[in-house]
Specification:
Helix content is about 40%, strand content about 20%. It has 16 helices and 17 strands. The longest helix has 20 residues.
Length: about 500
């Protein structure tokens, strides 16, 4: 329902500009449909389970057949309250449901029950990082509504099928101000919102099943000019496609303007096979839907004590957890944000620290080597072969000087591949203990100095980088067992 994004030009005058694309500023606003994790639909007892045979989970209430009346699902309201609490929004003590009138084959009753003038969640913000720069996107609203059915085109020649199982599925539509200024910001915002709704348990976040899908309103303008005409890219159900679709749409709009053509407001679809967006229909505004209060539903009244009860059951939020990591563990805001990308990842870090790992070292390994391997294997932290207690044991051996970094990576490799399960046993089996024989190390130093006269001369001539080359040679000759810091100090003494 992107008509809500149409009224914010006045608020944009003081907003920061982003990186220009061919001399144009990009303006992006988002509407996200999060399917709520209730077992039944928003106004009926029909199941919301995914994957059932078509038209087996749509009851008479979902289709508004004569003699039926919708009844509000309390669980859906509580999930809306949770989102409002998580995003610092105002939760309306009284909100109203309306009928949004339009005809489409997968909406046989001819209207959708939604909220319009008074939504249940108002305002709020989502903060996130793009690289190491923190951004904040303001929210307009989040309102409760029912989903429509689904048109199926693939399995029918020359005709379409209609599956009404989704009709009446509870949704929260989360609408932003047009605050985003680049594709990177838009994707980062969507990922952060996805993290929040799954963290607090109101949505399973499954994008392939349509549980979390985004519409991006995109326009371009010359810096300082009024907002350009927007086009809405519908139903983006992967972060990869989201990036491709917005990038293409930006290029397309600039090309149209540069060629002297006007941008027409429209709803567009992204085709992942061609990488292009294409217009589906002229975009409607709110007046086209002829909203009026639903006569079958009384106003939704949320008492203050209900909000307090929901608040008491909320988990620690990612932003609060990140602040705790900065305060208690001395981590940077960026590292803390990386560790709170999911509840499972934060739990892994907490477990490692509880097992005795130095927080900063544990953070470095989780966001570095661990993240690299998880991405390569396309698995989550829950499926990591290296358990939190094992990582803690590894980090403790690094901290007490038992393992130099190169040797630590060998131990991590053995843990990851299942070659071993105990850090100390792997260290013994691979003979990775540091070199403690001062005589042997001194001999290696002398040999390296003798074989690398050029580096020695450069270092004595003031080139500090030459010392690093010498340290590398010593580490290589010692099989990675020497302590790099100790080697550096000994070399400096010998070359003084």
């Amino acid at each position: 329902m992107s008509e809500t994004v149409n009224t914010f030009e006045a608020q944009q005058q003081g907003r920061p500009t982003g990186p220009l694309v061919r001399g144009y500023e990009v303006i992006i606003g988002f509407e996200t449909h999060a399917q709520l994790s209730t077992a039944s639909k928003i106004f009926s007892r029909a199941s919301t389970a995914f994957g059932a045979e078509p038209n087996t989970q749509a009851c008479a209430v979902d289709l508004a057949l004569p003699g039926t009346l919708p009844v509000m699902n309390k669980g859906a309201v509580e999930r809306a309250i949770k989102l409002g609490l998580a995003l610092g929004s105002h939760i309306a003590p009284r909100s109203v449901f309306a009928r949004k009138n339009y005809f489409y084959p997968d909406l046989p009753k001819g209207y959708q029950i939604s909220q319009f003038e008074i939504p249940v969640v108002q305002g709020g913000a989502v903060s996130f990082f793009v690289g190491e720069e923190q951004k904040t996107v303001r929210l307009v609203r989040a309102h409760l509504e029912e989903d429509a059915g689904k048109s199926l085109h693939e399995d029918f020649v020359g005709q379409s099928g209609i599956d009404l199982n989704r009709a009446g599925t509870p949704l929260l539509e989360i609408v932003t101000e047009p605050d985003m200024r680049s594709t990177a910001e838009a994707v980062a915002y969507a990922k952060e919102l996805h993290k929040i709704v799954t963290w607090i348990g109101i949505c399973d976040g499954n994008m392939q099943e349509g549980s979390f899908r985004c519409d991006a309103n995109v326009s371009v303008r010359r810096p300082g000019e009024k907002l350009g005409t927007r086009r809405e890219i519908k139903n983006l159900n992967s972060f990869k496609f989201m990036q491709q679709a917005i990038d293409y749409e930006i290029r397309w709009q600039i090309d149209e303007i540069e060629d002297g053509r006007k941008i027409e407001q429209a709803t567009v679809l992204f085709d992942p096979d061609t990488g292009e967006t294409r217009a589906m229909r002229a975009k409607e505004d709110s007046a086209d839907y002829r909203y009026f209060p639903d006569p079958d539903l009384p106003p939704l009244v949320i008492a203050a004590d209900w909000i307090e009860r929901v608040k008491a059951d909320m988990p620690e939020l990612p932003r609060a957890m990140a602040e705790r990591y900065v305060r208690d563990h001395g981590l940077s805001e960026y590292d803390a944000a990386q560790l709170t990308q999911s509840a499972a990842l934060a739990g892994y870090f907490d477990e490692a620290v509880k097992a005795g790992a130095t927080p900063k070292l544990a953070s470095n390994w989780i966001t570095g080597e661990m993240a690299r391997r998880l991405n390569a294997a396309e698995i989550g932290i829950e499926a990591a072969p290296v358990k939190a207690q094992q990582l803690a044991q590894l980090v403790k051996r690094i901290a007490d000087g038992t393992l130099p970094n190169n040797a630590a990576r060998q131990v991590f490799e053995a843990l990851w591949t299942g070659e071993g399960s105990d850090v100390d046993a792997i260290i013994e089996a691979k003979d990775l203990k540091p070199m403690n024989d001062a005589g042997a190390l001194d001999k290696i130093l002398d040999e390296v100095i003798a074989k690398n006269a050029k580096n020695v001369e450069e270092y004595r001539g003031g080139k500090e980088k030459a010392l690093n080359a010498l340290v590398g040679q010593v580490m290589k000759a010692s099989g990675g067992k020497a302590n790099p810091a100790q080697v550096t100090e000994l070399l400096k003494a010998k070359l003084a």
